[in-house]
Amino acid sequence: MPRLYRLLFTLFCFSFASPAFAFSQRSELEELIIAAAGSALFSLIAMIVIFIKSEKSFLPRLLISLASPLLVFPVCMAGSMATSYIVKQASDMKKDQNLAQQAQAESAAWQNNPLRINACGGDSATLKIELASDVHDDATRLRVLDECILPRADAVSLQAMLLDRLARNTEQWAYCTYLDRVMQRMDTSLLDVFVEQKLALACPSDIYSAAGDGTTVEPSWWDLVNQQRNGDTAQLLKTLRYLQAHGVNMKVAVNGRSLLSMAMESSKPALILFALDAGAAPDLHAEETSTLSPLEIWTLQRFSFVEMGTYSDADRQSIQARLRDMTGKEADALAHKLRYKGGLDHATDGGAGLLAYLIKSGASLRSMNRGGNGAFSAYTRLSPNLLEVINKLNDQQLLEFICPEAAPVDEGYSVYKQAIQIDNKELTSFLKQRNMPETCPAPQK
User: Fold this and answer.
1) What is the pLDDT of residue 40?
2) DSSP single-letter state for residue 305
3) What CA–CA distance (Å, rounded) separates 204 from 106?
4) Where are the transmembrane segments (predicted)?
5) pLDDT tens string 237-282
């Protein structure tokens, strides 16, 4: 019996020794594999020890030895993983304590930072001296600007920070790091600090750009418009008027986008009118063919496309008075872009108003639905209003409308034929009533 106790005690110790195999800087799966390998090794050792030390006859001794892993392996695995878990928890707790102590120390150091104390206290004279010591890195200076100077709208301290920045960095756009932060405050009294130093208010978004005047890359004030266009419109307009009065070009366009594009996307009438009055081009086109021009965006908004903005009648009249109607070529282009906006179905009136406008503007009936990828297809829901517009077409016009010219990669497309295939009853009934042919006469090239 004493020997059996010693054996059990040894196995008990093994269960706590096995974590040496498992506990390490590895993934949980790797620890599990290593723990299993260690437990298997201890099981083998236990088998050998039992076989050698047991005083039983050969067969019982062999059977006990072979059965021992059923006890040894799970005990070792359980001990290994339990010990690993406990050690990890202790280690994580220690790390958390260290991080908390480190954060506390950093907070205390920040509270006692002389640059922060002078800036937050509004002591601009001492702030200048502290800045001149050049012992504070750029990250510290920016943090002081964000936490102390800008919230207090302290123009005197901002001027001290700006002059220090200009003295230490002679790059053309070095001051833009500060200007971009000030711009977001939309406080023109702070912008006065940059104007007094005769600094341009139109920085490029990328301050390391080689652009000379911020017009060949997106200007940083666009970031202000993008971020604030759905916020306080009156304050945004006040800031934009200030920028305009101090030489910022409101007509600047980059890759088909402009202030008017952003204004149209915001659906804010006051912002749209400001952009139009500032001279932003409504017919500006991007290289990407699916991108809508400001005039195209407005046309969809004008005819109540879903999620394209809602306006009062007075707003519509005021905006439209500053715009022109589309040409036939522009109407064709918009008709083909409609597939990216869900087609005519996404207008509140089923697309009747827009289709009538496109036809009136001179859009080609043969090219409007080219290849079934345009304003109208066999899948279009034929609302009563839309039916009324289409029914006004004479037979030749309707034939051109449902048998559009072929796309470059197909042999022709028939709206009527596909409407039958997909069982669009409203459309097939209408076309049957108008005696249209189910198959187009010939591929239209």
Assistant:
1) 78
2) B
3) 34
4) 32-52, 64-87
5) 999 999 999 999 999 988 888 999 999 988 899 999 999 999 999 9
